[in-house]
Design a protein that fits this description.
Layout: H1 2-17, H2 19-25, H3 27-47, H4 57-75, H5 80-87, H6 91-105, H7 111-134, H8 158-175, H9 186-201, H10 205-221, H11 226-245, H12 254-267, H13 289-302, H14 314-318, H15 339-375, H16 381-396, H17 409-433
Helix pairs in contact: 1-6, 2-3, 3-6, 4-5, 4-15, 6-17, 7-8, 7-9, 8-9, 8-10, 8-16, 9-11, 10-16, 13-15, 15-16, 16-17
């Protein structure tokens, strides 16, 4: 009998906590898990008549965004392969709702999960450092394009993966009372610091900026976590200095890529200013020469599809069209490399307005969370955890930075994953008030 009771918790409860590991294993396993947790959750939501999971303002927003996506995709139908990510996009909001339901149903905030994340991050840190110093990781994956990737091999997403994992690790530390008021756990602080160091060493500039932005947001939100943030940042600086000091390959110098190369790309050092791609004020490019081209080309396409956009993969099909193409075929790619520009092109003004509204809503919720935490004289781990999930969503929606393909499976899954946790903590807060 106990086995029957515990099986759903084991599979869907703990499986949900370990979902980031599924993303590491591969897209097929993570897709299958999402499908099963959605079916499981919808079955019980309907059978138990817990319609508040579906009948709420968040679901209305998701429906509107999905309608924007499906209309633009089908109206600009190129082929099924180009359209399936738009047609199947509904599963991601349902994944967030399913996450909320599972968290509400099962108590999964325990130290077993903390142990897993500690072990998981420690293995990635050790493997990344081995690859950094020896040129190969423990599986034999070599360094590519002077950037470490650990277990991800040819996919250079190590920094992005860790950046999305850290908020959950921090949240589990709070929920299991490992981090408490006026108490700093040095072991876990150092693990977080080393994780940030790996993000830095990976050379992923976007991910490094976002993880710094995340901790800056946490520092602003809560006075209770400021000592932890300061310790983590100081430790990160020390670790980065020490590890970089003993590097054997100058081409792996992270500071050169993070700062010197970024500056050179923004000012266009070594690039001639073409007539079709003039710099802003004749001085700088938006992020880089290539990104600048993506955005100019996106604007040209957007002008012909302003209201509902071109569909989820319209950019990649239209960017080589003679009426849009820039000189030397500049700017053409699989996507525009910025979430807001991509949605403006794919979903038009309608979809852009919705995603921008979502960003403003999250920003407002962050300030409300800060105000609530400041007014309380108690250490509220639930409100703090909600603030951490809000910060995780905030960095995913941050507009002023290059980003991955919003409709890519890996990216979209990791974007919607913290939303379900936010719904859970938000509903706990509202239930407590009522």
């Amino acid at each position: 009998m106990n086995l029957k009771i515990n099986l759903p918790k084991l599979f869907w409860g703990y499986g949900l906590c370990l979902f980031p590991l599924l993303l590491l294993v591969g897209p097929l396993i993570s897709e299958l898990y999402i499908l099963t947790i959605i079916i499981f959750s919808l079955f019980y939501i309907i059978s138990e008549k817990k319609f508040h999971f579906l009948n709420n303002k968040y679901m209305i927003f998701f429906i509107l965004f999905y309608l924007s996506t499906i209309f633009s995709t089908l109206f600009n139908f190129y082929n099924f392969d180009s359209s399936k990510s738009g047609i199947l996009f509904f599963r991601l909001p349902l994944f967030a709702i399913a996450t909320w339901y599972v968290l509400k149903t099962y108590n999964i905030f325990n130290r077993k999960i903390v142990f897993f994340y500690t072990l998981f991050l420690s293995v990635i840190i050790i493997d990344s450092l081995i690859q950094f110093y020896l040129g190969k990781n423990i599986l034999g994956y070599e360094i590519l394009r002077n950037r470490i990737s650990s277990f991800f091999g040819e996919e250079l997403i190590l920094g992005g993966f860790i950046t999305r994992i850290i908020p959950f690790f921090l949240m589990y530390l709070l929920m299991t009372n490992i981090i408490e008021e006026n108490k700093i756990n040095f072991l876990y602080s150092f693990i977080i610091s080393l994780s940030i160091t790996v993000v830095y060493l990976s050379g992923e500039r976007t991910s490094f900026f976002l993880i710094i932005l995340f901790f800056f947001t946490i520092f602003i939100i809560s006075k209770y976590l400021r000592k932890l943030v300061i310790l983590v940042m100081i430790s990160f600086i020390l670790f980065s200095f020490i590890i970089s000091k003993f590097q054997k390959n100058d081409q792996l110098n992270a500071s050169n890529r993070m700062f010197q190369k970024t500056y050179q790309q923004i000012i266009g050092d070594g690039k001639n200013t073409e007539e079709h791609k003039k710099k802003i004020f004749n001085k700088i490019y938006v992020f880089s020469h290539d990104h600048h081209g993506h955005y100019l080309l996106s604007y040209k396409i957007f002008k012909d599809y302003p209201i509902f956009g071109t569909g989820v993969k319209g950019f990649r099909y239209l960017c080589r069209n003679k009426i849009y193409i820039l000189e030397k075929n500049d700017g053409c790619s699989t996507h525009p490399h910025n979430t807001y520009v991509q949605i403006l092109v794919s979903n038009g003004i309608v979809g852009f307005a919705l995603i921008f509204f979502a960003f403003i809503y999250i920003l407002r919720e962050i300030f409300k969370c800060k105000k609530k935490l400041s007014s309380k004289n108690i250490f509220d781990k639930y409100e703090l955890s909600k603030g951490i999930m809000l910060s995780a969503i905030f960095i995913n929606l941050w507009p002023l930075i290059p980003s991955g393909n919003f409709f890519n499976n890996w990216v979209s899954m990791i974007y919607f994953y913290p939303i379900g946790f936010y719904f859970y903590f938000k509903h706990l807060d509202e239930t407590k008030i009522n």
